[in-house]
Amino acid sequence: MWSERGNSRGQVVIISGPSGCGKTTICQELVKDPRVRKSISVTTRPRRPQEKEGRDYYFVTEEEFERKRKEGKFAEYARYSGHLYGTLLEPLERALEQDMVYLLEIDVQGARQIMERFPQALSIFILPPEEGVLKRRLLGRGTDLGKGLATRVEIAKEELSHASRYRYRVVNDRLERAVEEIRIILGLDQKEHR
Ligand code: ADP
Ligand code: 5GP
Q1: Residue of 81, 139, 141 with the most ligand 1 atoms within 8 Å of its CB, for mutation
Q2: Helix, strand, coil % over all residues of the chain, rounded to 5
C-alpha cells in the first residue's frame, strides 16, 4: 500500500477543510479505533484554554519553529491566519512502520506539500452542509472572536475552492454519519484488524 519507504503498509491520510467544518471533532472520533493515530502538529499559535501541550499541539515560539524547520524536522509546514503550523516527519515515519492509519489534520497549503512528497497519501476534504454553518460553529466553539473569526471565515471561503483537489469529499452534516463514511473510505468498517 505504501511506496515511499518501500515495504511499510501504513497509510497517511490528509484531512483538510475550512475552519469550523468539524475536522478536529471527526479526528477525535476516528482515533478511538486502535488502528488510527493522529499527528500532533507543532504551532506558534497561542494555546486555547481547553488545549493541552503534547495532546492537541506542541506549542512553540517562532524561533523554536524556525530551528526545527532548518533541522528538516517537518514533513510540511505552512502559515495560517498569522501563525506557523508544521507536521513532524519522525512520528509520521514511525506510524507508517507500525502499519497505522496516520491522520494529518492540516490546511490546504500543507496538503499540497504532502501530496507531492507522499503521492500515496489519501486525501479527504471535509465540507460543511452549507457555508453559513461554519460561522455558527466557530461562534459556538467560542475560541475565535472579532478579527480572528472574520479572518477564519475569509480563509474558509478560499479553502473551499480547493475541495476538488482531494480524492474524497465528505459533508459533515451529522457527525456520526460523516465519521462512518470516512471509516468506510479508510477500510476501517471491517471489524477484524489488518
Ligand atoms: P475544525 O477543527 O474543522 O475547525 P471543530 O472540530 O473544532 O472544527 O468544530 C467546530 C465546532 O462545530 C465545534 O464546536 C464542534 O463541536 C462543532 N461540530 C463539529 N461537527 C459538528 C456536526 N456534525 N454538527 C454540529 N456541530 C458540529
Ligand atoms: P487551528 O488553529 O484551528 O487549530 O488550525 C488552523 C488550521 O491549521 C486548520 O486548517 C488546521 O487543519 C491547520 N493545521 C493544523 N496543524 C497543521 C500542520 O501541521 N500543518 C498545516 N499545514 N496546517 C495545520
Answers
A1: 141
A2: 40, 25, 40
